[in-house]
């Protein structure tokens, strides 16, 4: 559900404004209304850019984190000043920059080593002695096809090495004598030997090892310093932002600030401000106000809130879709997963992850996966599939959840969610505009249910009384009259009829397409079960003739790889397609608007 918000106006003497903001921040319940964009203020824009740079550094450092070697952060984190935080940031950035420099140095030195490897390891001082005694030593390389045998006599060439399609050779000539140079690439040799280059390469490698150790130590023991610095920057940004959001009145002697407070926190706010002698007034919410949205759901639905936020928060005047789609999402995931064994593994993995993790966010994700894994386990047992093996009761032709019935069930579930979505849309219009504007939407829901009942009941119940069918058709016709003649209260009846015809066309075409989309639930679940069965058959059939000491390890390997791949694909498809059905079909039919701004109270970040 969306928590009810109250709108407040605060009038503060300009010399007391900062003190008032400190008081407001200590309460931590007021979402400050923005009168100007913080990005338009140079000082705040600098803070935004500084936080971007800091977060990029934190992500880079965190990649070196070893979860098993993390030490406990010091208790007195708040005593870490911003100056110390900035120094920690500079140190981390230096380590990262040094890592990049060492990588470039290593790559360059490796190229030099590779080039010298073609010539072998020799003492360059020997070459220099020959030159000092009047000899000219030149180094060349060319392709094997270009090198000629007579070059040894013609140019005094000496082949040093053949590497792939290249020939490396030197020429030796006496100073003062005329000599020719071969048509080959002249190599300028460095004044170091291969062993010296390799020693330098090893030195760089040792520096890299030390650098990695320093980064790992920082990530495991001092990452909290950057996190604390980020919170301090965020708190400073929030305070500076609050300073500029107030409007100056009465020759700039009075600051006027607007804020939003959850209804549950109103009493605490008013008591604190009254005790401090500050003036405030509760205001009526007006159309066009940008009201922040805070979601509050039960223990089950709140773990699905990240899915809602993934698309968009509802705006304040809407109905929170989270508790409405959560049961459907769980059901869709289980039907797409299609295997109780995979569901059990997901449940176990999520439980282990939840126990081992200390992060609240990770625990919430693991709890959601526990729900999804548990749902997949139950639904997998209902359809009778465990690791690709069909259970005995599911093989009977009379089994209610056989493949033919599952396809029908998917369509029925889709129709139920679509009708539920249209009912929610009617409730939303009633909440936003009033009952008379929502009657046509309620009427369409009634038409669809009544007409569907009139068509389906005779098939399901043999010998049903014609009176019941007549009543259903009567209700459907009554709903059509409302939908056609009262879809736009206050307008010409002829316009209403035209709008009713257009709505009928949209309803018929949209309903068919939306309903068919739910067949994917059956198709994906069926695919997962078939693939699991194929891997089982592959493991059994391909090892049938092998000795038992070879067969069983090989079977285990095939089953682990096959079911591992199948489970990975099942997880992806079981998340993607329910998301698609939720964000497209369900949101379309409940006329979801979105665009809500999250409730972000002015408080010290901890």
From TrEMBL:
<dbReference type="GO" id="GO:0007035">
    <property type="term" value="P:vacuolar acidification"/>
</dbReference>
<dbReference type="GO" id="GO:0051117">
    <property type="term" value="F:ATPase binding"/>
</dbReference>
<keyword id="KW-0406">Ion transport</keyword>
<feature type="transmembrane region" description="Helical">
    <location>
        <begin position="467"/>
        <end position="486"/>
    </location>
</feature>
<keyword id="KW-0813">Transport</keyword>
<feature type="transmembrane region" description="Helical">
    <location>
        <begin position="518"/>
        <end position="540"/>
    </location>
</feature>
<feature type="transmembrane region" description="Helical">
    <location>
        <begin position="552"/>
        <end position="576"/>
    </location>
</feature>
<feature type="transmembrane region" description="Helical">
    <location>
        <begin position="406"/>
        <end position="427"/>
    </location>
</feature>
<dbReference type="InterPro" id="IPR002490">
    <property type="entry name" value="V-ATPase_116kDa_su"/>
</dbReference>
<feature type="transmembrane region" description="Helical">
    <location>
        <begin position="324"/>
        <end position="350"/>
    </location>
</feature>
<keyword id="KW-0472">Membrane</keyword>
<comment type="similarity">
    <text>Belongs to the V-ATPase 116 kDa subunit family.</text>
</comment>
<keyword id="KW-0812">Transmembrane</keyword>
<dbReference type="GO" id="GO:0046961">
    <property type="term" value="F:proton-transporting ATPase activity, rotational mechanism"/>
</dbReference>
<feature type="transmembrane region" description="Helical">
    <location>
        <begin position="371"/>
        <end position="394"/>
    </location>
</feature>
<keyword id="KW-1133">Transmembrane helix</keyword>
<dbReference type="Pfam" id="PF01496">
    <property type="entry name" value="V_ATPase_I"/>
</dbReference>
<protein>
    <submittedName>
        <fullName>V-type ATP synthase subunit I</fullName>
    </submittedName>
</protein>
<dbReference type="GO" id="GO:0016471">
    <property type="term" value="C:vacuolar proton-transporting V-type ATPase complex"/>
</dbReference>
<feature type="transmembrane region" description="Helical">
    <location>
        <begin position="439"/>
        <end position="461"/>
    </location>
</feature>
<dbReference type="GO" id="GO:0033179">
    <property type="term" value="C:proton-transporting V-type ATPase, V0 domain"/>
</dbReference>
């Amino acid at each position: 559900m969306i928590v009810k918000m109250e709108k407040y106006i605060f009038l503060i003497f300009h010399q007391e404004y900062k003190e008032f903001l400190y008081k407001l921040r200590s309460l931590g319940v007021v979402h400050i209304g923005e009168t100007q964009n913080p990005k338009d203020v140079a000082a705040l824009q600098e803070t935004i850019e500084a936080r971007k740079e800091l977060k990029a550094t934190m992500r880079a450092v965190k990649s070196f984190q070893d979860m098993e070697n993390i030490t406990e952060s010091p208790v007195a984190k708040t005593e870490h000043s911003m100056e110390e935080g900035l120094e920690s940031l500079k140190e981390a950035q230096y380590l990262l920059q040094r890592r990049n420099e060492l990588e470039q140095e290593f790559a360059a030195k490796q190229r030099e080593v590779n080039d010298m490897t073609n010539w072998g390891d020799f003492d360059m001082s020997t070459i220099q002695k020959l030159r000092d005694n009047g000899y000219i030593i030149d180094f060349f390389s060319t392709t094997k096809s270009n090198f000629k045998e007579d070059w040894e006599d013609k140019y005094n060439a000496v082949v040093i090495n053949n590497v792939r399609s290249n020939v490396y050779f030197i020429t030796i000539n006496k100073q003062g004598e005329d000599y020719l140079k071969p048509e080959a690439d002249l190599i300028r040799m460095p004044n170091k030997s291969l062993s010296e280059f390799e020693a330098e390469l090893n030195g760089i490698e040792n520096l890299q090892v030390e650098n990695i150790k320093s980064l790992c130590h920082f990530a495991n023991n001092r990452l909290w310093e950057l996190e604390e610095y980020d919170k301090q920057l965020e708190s400073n940004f929030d305070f500076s932002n609050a300073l500029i959001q107030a409007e100056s009145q009465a020759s700039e002697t009075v600051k006027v600030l607007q804020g939003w407070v959850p209804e549950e926190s109103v009493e605490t706010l008013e008591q604190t401000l009254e005790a401090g002698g500050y003036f405030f007034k509760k205001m009526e919410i007006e159309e066009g106000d940008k009201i922040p949205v805070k979601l509050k759901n039960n223990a089950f639905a709140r773990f699905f809130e990240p899915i809602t936020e993934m698309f968009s928060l509802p705006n304040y005047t809407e109905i929170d879709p989270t508790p409405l789609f959560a049961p459907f999402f769980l059901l869709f995931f289980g039907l797409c997963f299609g295997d109780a064994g995979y569901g059990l593994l997901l449940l176990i993995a999520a439980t282990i992850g939840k126990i081992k993790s200390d992060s609240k966010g990770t625990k919430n994700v693991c709890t959601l996966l526990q729900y999804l894994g548990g749902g997949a386990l139950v639904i997998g047992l209902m359809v009778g599939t465990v690791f690709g093996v069909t259970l005995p009761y599911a093989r009977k032709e009379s089994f209610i959840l056989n493949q033919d019935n599952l396809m029908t069930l998917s369509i029925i579930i889709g129709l139920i969610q679509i009708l539920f979505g249209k009912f929610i849309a009617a409730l939303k219009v009633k909440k936003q505009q009033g009952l008379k504007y929502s009657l046509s939407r309620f009427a369409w829901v009634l038409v669809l249910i009544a007409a569907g009942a009139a068509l389906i009941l005779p098939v399901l119940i043999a010998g049903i009384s014609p009176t019941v069918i007549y009543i259903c058709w009567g209700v459907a016709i009554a709903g059509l009259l409302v939908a056609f003649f009262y879809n736009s209260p206050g307008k010409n009846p002829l316009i209403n009829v035209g709008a009713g015809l257009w709505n009928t066309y949209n309803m018929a075409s949209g309903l068919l397409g939306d309903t068919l989309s739910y067949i994917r639930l059956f198709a994906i679940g069926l695919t997962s079960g078939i693939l699991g069965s194929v891997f089982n058959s592959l493991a059994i059939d391909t090892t049938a003739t092998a000795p038992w000491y070879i067969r069983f390890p090989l079977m285990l390997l095939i089953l682990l790889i096959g079911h591992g791949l199948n489970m990975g694909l099942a997880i992806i498809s079981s998340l993607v397609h329910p998301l698609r059905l939720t964000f497209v079909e369900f949101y379309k039919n409940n006329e979801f608007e979105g665009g809500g701004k999250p409730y972000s109270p002015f408080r010290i970040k901890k």
